[in-house]
Amino acid sequence: MVIAHRAGHTSGLPCVSRENIGLEWGAYSFFLKHHWDGKSDVLFMHDDTELRLEFLSEMSSVPHDLAFVFENEQDFQDFYTHGRVFFASARFLGIARSQEGIWYDRGNQGFTTDRARTDKTPAGCQDHNAGIRAFTSQAEEIGKRYPSFSVNRPFFSENIRYGIRGQLRNTPAEQRHAADARFARR
User: Fold this and answer.
1) Burial of 110 (C-beta count, 10 Å sphere; 0-12/13-18/19+)
2) How far apart are CA 74 and CA 108, in angstroms?
3) CA distances from 136 to 7, 68, 108, 167 (A)
4) What is the pTM of this model?
5) Is a pLDDT exceeding 70 seen at residue 184?
6) Using an 8 Å Cβ cutoff, are 15 and 4 in contact?
7) CA-to-CA distance for 43 and 136, rounded, in angstroms?
8) 57-66, 72-81, 99-108, 162-171: least confident range
């Protein structure tokens, strides 16, 4: 299922539109509260993500209750807790839902930024990463109360490619090729 803030291609998946409040964490919270079946594991993803079919079978073997998915170890080091894709087990989601769900910044109505800009946060809005910080803290608390749970873990896949603000990033091989080309021009 796709929870969308605007119209777009959903590859045939059912789509529910909602106002962009709380960025992706608002959408994740909405899904958990209104559409989760109460028994299924869930893969949460940003819309600017590309995956190969093999990725879905990899996700069915995730050994954790909450795992953030990265392309490789370097992405994990660079972007941990960014939360662009994460797997959550049904038992983790059941606990999260019983705790009033996934927190999101109700004052954020679409505000984002990146390293190249220094936009001022709008009044009534926390920063654009408030949701991911709250979520990883919630997961840490769940992990402490339920020691058998495995939470806030990385999972690596070469079958996924992330985008940022709608632009897909280069694959590691493309990044190496570009670096080689820059070095050769010197």
Assistant:
1) middle
2) 30
3) 29, 10, 19, 25
4) 0.80
5) no
6) yes
7) 16
8) 162-171
* Strand 2-4 relative to strand 15-17, pairing: parallel
Number of domains in the chain: 1
**Helix/strand/coil (H/E/C) assignment for every residue in the chain:** CEEECCCCCCCCCCEEECCCCCHHHHHHHHHHHHCCCCCCCEEEECCCEEECHHHHHHHCCCCCCEEEEECCHHHHHHHCCCCCEEEECHHHHHHHHHCCCCCCCCCCCCCCCCCCCCCCCCCCCCCCCHHHHHHHHHHHHHHHHCCCCCCCEEEECCCEEEEECCEECCCHHHHHHHHHHHHHHC
The pLDDT tens digits for 46-98 are: 777 788 889 989 999 999 999 999 888 887 887 766 667 899 999 999 999 99
Give the domain range for residue 169: 2-185
Mean pLDDT, residues 144-149:
97
